[in-house]
Structure formats: C-alpha cells, structure tokens
Design goal:
The protein has 145 residues and is an all-alpha fold. It has helices at 8-31, 35-43, 48-59, 61-76, 80-85, 94-102, 109-129, 131-139. Helix 2 (35-43) crosses helix 3 (48-59), helix 4 (61-76) crosses helix 8 and helix 6 packs antiparallel against helix 7. The longest helix is centred in the N-terminal third of the chain and has 24 residues, at 8-31.
Length: 145
C-alpha cells in the first residue's frame, strides 16, 4: 500500500487498535444516561440529532475527555508500532526514537534516563492538568441520586 515510513503507518493501526475500546467506553456512558432526559427532550420537540447534540453530547463531556486523555497516553507511549513500521528517523515517534537511540552510541544510562524523562514529561503534564476531569468521569456512574 506504500504507507511504510509514513505517519499513516502508525495512525491507521492505532485507530483499529483503540476503536473497540472507545466504542465500549462511550457505550457504557450512554447506556447509563437516564431515559427521562431523552423523553423530556422529545416532548419539547427535539428530533434525534437535536437530542444527541444538545442533550447527550454535553452530558458526555467527562466521558469524552477521560477517553481522550487515555487515548493520548496510550498513543504517546506506543513503542512497538513505531519500531516495526517506521524506519525513517524523521518520522519516528518519541518512544520509537528512544528505542533506536538505545544502541546507537553504546549504552549511556544517564542519557537514556534523560530521554525517558523527556518522553514522560508530556504525559505527566496532560494527566496533571486534566486529573480532575479524569476522576470525575471515572466516578460519574458510581453514585445514584
């Protein structure tokens, strides 16, 4: 197909890899939505698309944001696809670059640790910024009231 050594070589398998979990995650959220909300919107005259975009999507913000955080973390830490599908050093992901860097100049442990910390920093920052939203989404279905 001619997509080796391109970004599509990583993007397409990741879509196929993460799509089932994403569907399962969002389905679990939408199944737990109260039916009374949908009924009241239908009584007010909302059609199916208005019901979805004006009622369900705003209420799904915590689930969507936590899914986005999880997918970002999993994608950022993807190692195997970057090593197998991309040989060009200019198109590698950060994890793939660190894997290729490991044997290039010998085993320089402090340099590898510094590279690992640089790769870890964005995931830590994203999680710390959005931790409240992540915890809210995880606890959203735990309380009935």
């Amino acid at each position: 197909m001619g997509i080796l050594n391109t970004r599509w070589a990583i993007i397409l398998p990741l879509i196929g890899l993460f799509m089932p979990f994403s569907v399962f995650w969002m389905r679990a959220h939408f199944v737990n939505m109260p039916e009374e909300l949908s009924e009241s919107a239908r009584i007010d005259g909302a059609n199916v698309w208005q019901l979805f975009w004006r009622v369900h999507v705003p209420l799904a913000a915590p689930a969507t944001s936590s899914l986005a955080i999880l997918l970002f973390l999993w994608t950022w830490n993807q190692f195997l696809l970057a090593i197998v599908l991309v040989d060009d050093p200019l198109h590698r992901t950060m994890s793939g670059a660190l894997g290729a860097f490991q044997g290039q100049w010998g085993t320089d442990i402090p340099l590898l640790c510094a590279g690992a910390l640089l790769i870890l920093a964005p995931t830590l920052v994203i999680f710390l910024i959005f931790q409240r939203r992540f915890v809210t989404a995880l606890l959203q279905g735990s309380l009935k009231g």
